[in-house]
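Re-run with default settings, no changes from the original entry. Doing this only to confirm the output is reproducible before filing.
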Amino acid sequence: MRAQNLDSSAHLFASTKRLRNSSTFRIAAVLVDEVDPVVLQEALDRTTPRYPMLMLRMRRGLFWNYLDDAEGPLMVGKETDYPTKLIIPEENNGYLIKVLYHGHRISIEVFHALTDGTGALEFLKTLLYHYICIRYGSITSEDRILLPDTLSEEESEDALRRYFLDPEKEKEKDDGKERYHIQGTPFSPPGNSVTSLILSVSELKALSKAEGVTITGYLAAVMLKSIMDAEKSKKRRSRMITVQIPVNLRKIFPSRTLRNFFGVMNITSPFEDNPDMEKLFTLVKEQMKEGLDRNRLERAERHTVGYSTNFISRITPLKFKSFFVSLGFRMWGEKKKTLTISNIGPVILPEGMRNRIILFEELLYPTLKSPINTGVVSFGDRLVFSFSRNIEEKDLIRAFTRNLSQKCSVTVYGNKYGETNA
């Protein structure tokens, strides 16, 4: 693959990555049997040629970062550090993606400039397919796994530019309201801790249907109440709570791209001393309907595309551009939300793979202004809701678990700070 430009979202991730803002997320699978690293490496060797758009390293140009082919093989590694740590390309043969194993878990960690959750999940599914075929015998893909004969150029396109490159059209305006930010004691040395909840998809569907919301909407409403419950004694409660939810734009603007192609919608509520769940469900339902409106998404994404295409950005040297983008992200971008709930949705696999895998996980990286972020993924009847935090305080996690467990069954597991997510 020849050198290529970063996609329109990737410029932000490239300019803002830091030790405490790694821009690295994880998609993982927990298997029935313990992972065989030799088989995993063979499976990875079969998988990487199918994903040339991910087998890249980042280079610095005069005006922009750009991507070109990484040299040498991508090697699997035993997990020895905390999840979603900043990827150091020089320690990874130049790659911006890692394949890790520990016990029964296979994890993909990806620098967000390469792809989003959809692209990473497809990579993991192909890897698991080859792993299971090598270890247990061939199975049919049922057209649910991306294999070499399905590779297309469209998978490498910057779909944001295709749909939203129109500087003359209206852009979404910021409402200017201050958001509430969770505060706590940062881990020292820096690190991330993970707490995951296993929930029943069928139970959540029934609860969500009764309230007239989606599963994501149900979880967002419970999160709003939990933030209010956990933060009762904190200052600055006059600010608005905003739960940010990434949106897979492929479902609204057709594209086969495996690069970044997502937007966000915000669910916002004022603090209430005794939050009423019915009121919160109504609020969430109305704001999600507005947030998924095609015209609103178009206005929002024109901001993202506009940064990489306007005249000033194009002529500003990269060193200065990165400084101002990073400064703007810390001063404005991060201030727009309290935390993120990223729901990658259900994982659909061929029948021959299903009995080899217990569950999937999605881990989002925490940041300075959002020291707790959450990822959601389901497989079969198991939905895993994972908190990633870089602070010691667990008040919000306790409140969310308590509020959920009043309505459905909850199983909790996780890693402790300073340990691998084993």
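The radius of gyration is 21 Å. The longest strand covers residues 24-31.
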